[in-house]
């Protein structure tokens, strides 16, 4: 932070921003070390320091700056609910923002909102016909949307592409559009999951859950949704 003040005094804004970013990242590393050493007594002082450095750096940048958009992404890792935006827009940044927003919705169990945000990503990418540019994104979106629909028990009030759920509704029916996004193994496991949910076959659902729990392609968030799904249908 001291370096940032020096850069400010000599009117070197790029140098000041760089120094503030380094300070913010140093605060975050210190916070991580503190948590590892003594997680029970970890304070939020380091994160507050990181937050101050990030916001000071942002105040030095124009709204349409790509650097500002990148810093906001880092800041949201510290403070997900911060209400700071940038006028800079790119497909990748929009996808990231929507995914992060969907994750926040999932955390508060607002599955309809999460589904709609992920559908926005799916629609945007497919409309631009650039699926090959975002294979991992499309896989995450495909799997999470499917899990959310199963959790919501596919209510008609939720907007979704009917063909999306149809291709997972019958084992071995040859409708393997999803296989272009997912591995064949994951695609068939998800088909089994949907069929088990629709049939309310708890034993089959648990068996599929056990197989999917070893699937490295699923994210931590998706594994948690899977656990919630089994719990919901087991009641």
TrEMBL record:
It comes from the Eukaryota. GO terms for biological process: vesicle cytoskeletal trafficking. GO terms for cellular component: early endosome. The lineage of its organism: Eukaryota, Metazoa, Ecdysozoa, Arthropoda, Hexapoda. InterPro entries: F8A. This is Uncharacterized protein.
């Amino acid at each position: 932070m001291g370096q940032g003040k020096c850069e400010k005094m000599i009117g070197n804004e790029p140098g000041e921003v760089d120094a503030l970013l380094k300070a913010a990242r140093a605060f975050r590393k210190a916070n991580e070390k503190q948590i590892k050493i003594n997680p029970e007594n970890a304070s939020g002082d380091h994160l507050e320091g990181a937050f101050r450095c990030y916001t000071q750096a942002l105040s030095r940048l124009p709204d349409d700056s790509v650097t500002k958009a990148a810093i906001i992404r880092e800041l949201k890792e510290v403070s997900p609910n911060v209400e700071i935006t940038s006028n800079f827009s790119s497909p990748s940044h929009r996808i990231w923002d929507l995914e992060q927003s969907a994750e926040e919705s999932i955390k508060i169990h607002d599955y309809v909102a999460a589904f709609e945000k992920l559908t926005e990503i799916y629609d945007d990418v497919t409309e631009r016909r650039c699926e090959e540019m975002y294979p991992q994104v499309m896989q995450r979106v495909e799997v999470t949307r499917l899990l959310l629909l199963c959790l919501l028990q596919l209510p008609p009030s939720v907007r979704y592409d009917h063909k999306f759920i149809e291709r997972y509704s019958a084992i071995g029916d040859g409708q393997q559009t999803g296989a272009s996004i997912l591995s064949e193994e994951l695609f068939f496991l998800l088909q089994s999951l949907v069929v088990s949910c629709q049939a309310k076959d708890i034993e089959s659902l648990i068996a599929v859950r056990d197989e999917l729990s070893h699937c490295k392609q699923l994210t931590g968030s998706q594994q948690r949704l899977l656990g919630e799904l089994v719990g919901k249908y087991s009641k």
